Amino acid sequence: MKVTILGRKVNLRENFKELAQRKLSRFERIFDEDAEATVVATVEKNVQTVEITIRQKGMIYRAEAAEAEMNDALDQVISALGRQIRKNKARLDKKIHSAALDQYVNEWDTPIAAEEEDEYKIVRTKHFSVKPMAVEEAILQMNLLGHSFYMFRNYETNEICVVYKRKNGDYGLLEPDEE
Question: How far is Cα 177 from Cα 179, in angstroms, rounded to an integer?
Answer without folding.
Answer: 6
